[in-house]
Amino acid sequence: xxxxxxxxxxxxxxxxxxxxxxxxxxxxxxxxxxxxxxxxxxxxxxxxxxxxxxxxxxxxxxxxxxxxxxxxxxxxxxxxxxxxxxxxxxxxxxxxxxxxxxxxxxxxxxxxxxxxxxxxxxxxxxxxxxxxxxxxxxxxxxxxxxxxxxxxxxxxxxxxxxxxxxxxxxxxxxxxxxxxxxxxxxxxxxxxxxxxxxxxxxxxxxxxxxxxxxxxxxxxxxxxxxxxxxxxxxxxxxxxxxxxxxxxxxxxxxxxxxxxxxxxxxxxxxxxxxxxxxxxxxxxxxxxxxxxxxxxxxxxxxxxxxxxxxxxxxxxxxxxxxxxxxxxxxxxxxxxxxxxxxxxxxxxxxxxxxxxxxxxxxxxxxxxxxxxxxxxxxxxxxxxxxxxxxxxxxxxxxxxxxxxxxxxxxxxxxxxxxxxxxxxxxxxxxxxxxxxxxxxxxxxxxxxxxxxxxxxxxxxxxxxxxxxxxxxxxxxxxxxxxxxxxxxxxxxxxx
Length: 495
Hints:
Blueprint lengths: L1 H41 L1 H19 L3 H37 L7 H30 L3 H21 L6 H27 L11 H36 L1 H37 L3 H28 L1 H8 L7 H28 L3 H23 L4 H27 L3 H29 L7 H20 L2 H19 L2
Helix pairs in contact: 1-3, 1-4, 1-5, 1-7, 1-8, 2-3, 2-4, 2-7, 2-8, 3-4, 3-7, 4-6, 5-6, 7-8, 7-12, 8-9, 8-11, 9-11, 9-14, 9-15, 11-13, 12-13, 14-15
């Protein structure tokens, strides 16, 4: 269900980005990205709470403690309401001041920028309140509903893109309708969770130890969430300060492509994350370690199959997709996707740390590494470096963070590093090399460049698929793969 969701969402999302770029224009599209980015910068508190809520719900469900699960949900919802108030205060004071004093807004668009900001704040409030319900759905592994609602949300956002043509100021109307979509999705989540999960019936009960436990976990999670959002939106603001809103349009395109592609992996990991936490809670160590390694490897495979042809044919794809391709969009897309390959490997590792609850040392180090991206990027920009160097620094830091996460899990969870290097890193490196070398030779010594872009993508796509099957899968995985193919064939082709 999650894969059906992502195929439809990818198509809708990529098409939506093309139409909204054409509808708003490069300047307004860049303005929307930078103004919305300020709001996202203040939402790091909520991001930490989403992960915390899901972790505690999964942990209690893993121990089959329904009563405690209900109390955890109620406490989490109370905390999210408090976060909403804190977020609103920060957004309407510090955030508003920053917008009107430090963001380079095109002349004559100051009022529009403030309206966009207010609607972005409103949409964020709806998303903050939705977080505990979202966590409950994932914790109960109701992926079909999660997929259906996500598809509906994507279609509504596509509808919004066409409706903006009815208004004189398309930027303001687009922001307002996106906030309306967020409100509608919150209502749907609320109705579903109330009717399907008894644990989601809110009951206020102040248990100091429970609130402290969730808040303490969230406090250390906060460091990582702040660093992650801070490094991403900080780079956006830094690019704006040195090169203006046009470069933010390129960054917006790159982030849209990367988010769409990476969602295939994040959805895959969404399905596995509850199992990782539950296995840790049940103290099934051998299965826990195997699941972490396998999920890490599969995540890379899934992303690489999609990312490889996009990286190779990025210029052609953007040219077809967008009527007007902002400068630097191609190289930005390629670098961000490379960084996401490291993130795909990292996902199960950081979820393992969250399952354990041992966050203090981990988050302090990870946060420092993430925020160092801004320091190095500022030094590079101040020294006369171009925007490409800024994105390259981000990729390098992402690779370093992955190595630290692996070392941390080896130390605290006794993951077999030799086995991990062989089965995960070794296989991933092999399929990358086997795929990249022949494609390089094709472009260097044949006329493949002159072929139709869709034909090129199909040819290039064959190399990662073949290399994963022959060198990425184990013998038992190949047998399982064959069985699944036979089931599909029997279901759809044999009466």
